[in-house]
Design goal:
CATH class of one domain: Alpha Beta
CATH topology of one domain: FAD/NAD(P)-binding domain
Radius of gyration: 21 Å
Strand content: 25-35%
Shape: globular
Order of helices and strands: EHEHEEHHEHEHEHEEEEEEEEHHEEEH
CATH architecture of one domain: 3-Layer(bba) Sandwich
Number of helices: 10
Length: about 400
Amino acid sequence: MNLLAGYPFWLIKDGLPFNYPALENDIHTDVVIIGGGISGALMGYYLGNAGVDCVIVDSRTIGLGSTCASTSLLQYETDTQLHILKDKVGLQNAVTAYKLGEEAVIKLGTIDKAIGCNEYETKKSLYYAAEKKHLPSLKKEFITRKENNFKVVYLEEGSIQQSYGLSIPAPAILSETAAQTDAYKFTHALHQYSKQKGVKIYDRTDVIKIDHRKNSIVLTTANGCTIKAKKLVYANGYEAVNYIDKKMVTLHSTYAAASEQCTADIAFWKDETLVWNTADPYLYMRTTKDRRIVIGGRDELFTNTSQRDILIRHKSKLLKRDVEKLLPSINYKQEFTWAGTFAITKDGLPFIGAMRHTPNSYFSLGYGGNGITFSLIGAEIITDLIVTGKSKHGNLFSFDRS
């Protein structure tokens, strides 16, 4: 599947920082990971640190799937509000999912520092009501988070415009824990670190056959090579829908744009917090280190890549209008526009763990709006399952929950 179109800012900015070989001979390993994007990179990082012999293979050049299209907002909230999620999975499970997301945001910063990526930036997150009819739900969401010890503040109508310089005449929840990064650069930095731990990474290596045996896995590539392993991890994101029940997820197209660089060394808005709203689909906005505004949203149900790509020009105009509405004093000029494909689940939680019909295999599928934080959670859970045979939070994200 072609997962992106247009010119993602991160790919243009970073280019191809490292080269990886294609697999050209038969190999053996303990664990093979399919997918070399952010999910596979975090999986390799955790397994490598645990001393597990593993190999990562990707059908594309590393990072050229959904990873380079990511706008890389790091938030603990899922696409399903906490007060709604608790009715779907129970209060304890809902709070645990949010707490794990909160921990993941912080851990990503620790990892960024450990591998020398230096793209992680601590931020706050501003979640505002897009319409007046959303106010009761926003208030309920704030109360639920506050009662469960999340660091949040409720900003009344008018205060955002005065304090933050954003034209938002509506209440909002300000969350203390959030961050932003460059998922594409972070992925390459993770791979470079993991290589030093003995993890082998191959791109342009298309797996065309997977043989799930009783005590092993045998993968066959398009050029006839075989990979024999004890365990397999599917970390190939939205392409993994080919291996699971398609009713479990819904594919969507999302659109994003990055502005020209601003030469003035001033904040676009207070603290340049992450900004998103309660609309469905929701709008989201951030800045970059080199003084650009990145905005995304205007999602559509995914039908096919051609239809998604045709809409880029129209959606970009709408996103430009969205920025101008939020920041009327800013002379916003778009430079890069692109589209990506993502998947959502019924409860907004990812799928992590094993499935009965694919023995000796695990899935780390960070479906939803927080794919990066979900990918870290998935890497932790699956590493525990492989190394110790059990995981404290495995059941929360299992396929059986649906």
